[in-house]
Design goal:
Blueprint: H1 5-23, H2 29-36, H3 41-65, H4 68-73, H5 77-98, H6 108-121, H7 124-137, H8 139-158, H9 160-202
Helix pairs in contact: 1-7, 1-8, 2-9, 3-6, 3-7, 3-8, 5-6, 5-9, 7-8
Length: 203
């Protein structure tokens, strides 16, 4: 990390903005509502606390290790994109048929880790952005950006209940089905992006 304090601050702001846009907690609010609409307030808080903690750990790990993790396990970023897409597609199908992903036997911690923390909050896009922040701005700024974005996400998640009260049960059920289609579209895009990158690489 080099440059004047103003340049460092500007780079830090760019790193935060890029990661926040990709994580997109505002855009995921309908998804979070549909995933947790059958839960009590205490359970929701446990879900979102777990999601932000897991998300922070994941982003910090990639901030400090970057591409080395993929190299260690022999995994390409393209394969990760495809795997994330398949997981999201399964989630979308479950929501379309049941109206919710949550099951009585599923713990809030489990739901918070998968799929909320990964791949919804920390998916291929967020991981890629974190690795790019590491390469462009250095470890300190990449890790700092991850901490701030996760903190902002946690604040947003804390205010989901008032949004749910405005929508009501019927509105949430309708949104759950619509959002499931959006999740399926995002999943398909992840898969297509991974396949496209892989085909471009081998050619």
């Amino acid at each position: 990390m080099s440059g004047t304090p103003l340049e460092i601050a500007f780079d830090f702001a760019k790193a935060i903005l890029a990661l926040f846009i990709v994580v997109d907690p505002f855009g995921d609010i309908p998804i979070f509502i549909s995933l947790t609409e059958k839960m009590a307030i205490g359970e929701k808080r446990r879900v979102f606390r777990t999601a932000t903690l897991v998300g922070l750990v994941l982003l910090l790990v990639f901030s400090f290790t970057g591409q080395q993790i993929f190299t260690l396990f022999g995994i390409s970023l393209f394969a990760f994109e495809i795997a994330g897409g398949i997981l999201l597609l399964i989630i979308a199908i479950r929501i379309l048929f049941s109206g919710s992903l949550h099951e009585n036997t599923e713990s809030p911690e489990s739901l918070g880790a998968v799929p909320i923390a990964m791949p919804l909050l920390v998916g291929p896009g967020a991981i890629t952005t974190t690795i790019l922040n590491l390469q462009f701005y250095g470890v300190a700024l990449a890790a700092g950006a991850a901490v701030i974005v996760v903190f902002l996400t946690w604040i947003i998640l804390r205010f989901i209940d008032p949004i749910y009260r405005v929508l009501g049960k019927t509105g949430s059920l309708v949104i759950a089905r619509v959002v499931a289609l959006l999740i399926a579209a995002i999943a398909t895009q992840y898969i297509l992006t991974g396949v496209t990158h892989y085909l471009a690489l081998i050619h």
